[in-house]
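Hi team,

Filling in the usual template for the complex we talked about on Friday. All components are listed, including any nucleic acid strands or ligand strings, so the model treats them as one assembly.

SUBMITTER: L.P.
PURPOSE: interface mapping
COMPONENTS: two
RESIDUES: 445
SEQUENCES:
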Amino acid sequence: MAEIDTSQGGGGKKKGAKKVSTKVDMTPMVDLAFLLITFFMLTTTFNTPKVMQVLMPDKTENKKEKQDESFGKCTVIVLGDYDEVKKQNRLYWYQVIKGQQPELTEIEYSSEKMREFFSKKKKEVINDPDCKQKFVVVIKLKDQARFSTMVDILDEMAIVGVSRYGIQDIEPRELDLIKSFNAQAKK
Amino acid sequence: MGKVKIPRKNPSLDMTAMCDMAFLLLTFFILTAQFKPETPLQVDAPSSSSNEDETQRVLKIIVDTTGRVFLEIKDHTKREEILRNVAKHFGVAGELGKEEYDEFVGRQTFGAPIKDLVKILKAKAISAEAYQKIGIDPKKMSIPVDTIPKNNQLSWWVLYTREAYFAEDRARKDTMSKERLDIISRPTAEGLTPEQKKIWEEERKRQFKVVIFGDRNSRFGMMKQIIETLRNRKINRIHLVTNLRQAPQAGGSQESKN
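RESULT (copied from the run log):
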C-alpha cells in the first residue's frame, strides 16, 4: 500500500531473486495518529486562563480624605443595572454638582459607546484646571446587575487609562434616580 | 510485439512524510495539553482585554449564574492541611479520618457546607445520584457566604488557605539569601538588572492569589458579598478570570462589536 512498487513498470518480465519489500504499510498508523491528534486538539484548553486584577481599598484605611475628592465635576458616577424584562444590561451616569439636581443619562451598552464616553469625559476633566488632572470614576452596580457589566467597565477603565476608580455600594437615592429615569423614558 | 502494455501505476502514496507530520503534531498537542478541569458548575467567564496569565498558587472561587459558590485549591499538597484547620474551626474534625482526608485531597473542586462536606467525603459521593442518596440536593450545593461573619464559611476557607500558603512562604524565605530577599521585597521591578528582574518576576508569579471565576451572568450582588468577604480578610487585590478578547488600540473606535 504505502510502498511505491516500481517493479511492474517497464521491466515486468525481468526475473531475479525475489525481493521482499522492507516497507511497512503505514496507513493504520497514520489513521491512529490523526485520531489522537483530533482527540488532543479537542480536549486541550490552549491558553491558560487570563486574569484581571482589581484593587479594592483597604477597609481599615481612613476613607475621609478620599470621600472629599470623589464628588464634584471631576467625578463621574456610573450606575449599572440589568433589565430583567428586556434581558439587557443598562448603564447610566451622573455627576454631583452643587446646587443642581443630579440628572441621569444613559450610556448605550456597548464597548464602543462606553469607551467613547469615558475617553470624552477623561479629556474634559484633564483639561479642567480645577480637577488637577484627577479623573475619578465611581462604579455602582445594582445587585441584579451582571458580573459581565462589572468586568466590562473595569476593562474600559484599563483601556481608556483611568487609574482612579472604585466600586462602591449603590445608595437608595440612586436606585430612585434609576427608577424615575425609567419611568420618564416610558412616557 | 503483440500486446501493448499499459504501464500500471500503483495509486498508493508514500505516507512516511504524512506520518511524520502527524506524529509531530501529536507530540505537540500531548505536551501542551492541559485538560479542562472538571467542575460540577457550568461557568462561562466574561471577556476582557487583560492579558495576565493565571498562576499556579491560587485559591479559585467559582460562582455560577445561580450564585452557587465552589472552591478550587489547585495545590493538592495543601488540601489536607486546609481541611484539617477548617474542620477544627467548625468542630467537625473528630468525624474525619485518614480516608476522608485522602478523598478530599483527590478533589480539585468542592462546594458544600462543611457538615455536608463531611458526609460527602464519608460516602465518597461524586455523582448527582450519590449526593441525593445521602440527602444533599446537588442543585443547592454551595459554600455558604453569609453576611453574618460567624456563618460565613467561605471566609474561613480563605483564611486557612492563605495561612497554608503563607506558612510555606515563610519557610522558604528563611532559607533565602539576603540579596534575594532584598530583590523580592521591592514593590516594582524598576532599577533592577535583567537577572534580578527575572528573580523578581518569578517571585511575583509565586504570590498567593485569590481568583474569582464568575459566570458572565452571575449577579453582582453575589460578587459583592464575596469581595466583601475577601476584604474583611484583608485581601484587597483580587483577580477575576476572564476570556481574552482582542485588545483595541487606545482611542480607536473601529473595533468589532463584542
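MY TAKE: Residues 7-12 of chain A have pLDDT under 50 and may be disordered. Residues 27-43 of chain A form the longest helix (17 residues).

Thanks, L.
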